[in-house]
Amino acid sequence: MITHPGGIARLLYYPRAKPFQPKTSKEPEIGLGAHSDYECFTLLLSSPAPGLEILKPSGHWHQATPVPNSFIVNVADFLMR
Known about the structure:
By secondary structure, the protein is mainly beta. Helix content is 0%, strand content 20%. It is globular, with a radius of gyration of 15 Å.
């Protein structure tokens, strides 16, 4: 029934970023590259800054529009079996 005994819960805190400003130069961006979350699910507090993208089955990226005062629940690899 389960192929991974036990589980891990991690709480990560990321300090508030500066208010979003459209990028006008080639400065390095802050953030994570394309990845998948490997455990059960991920809870994210919505942020007004853009950045979260979803990879569609077509292989194209779709920007997730932030909803104020909400949480985003990402189903992770563990539940995709």
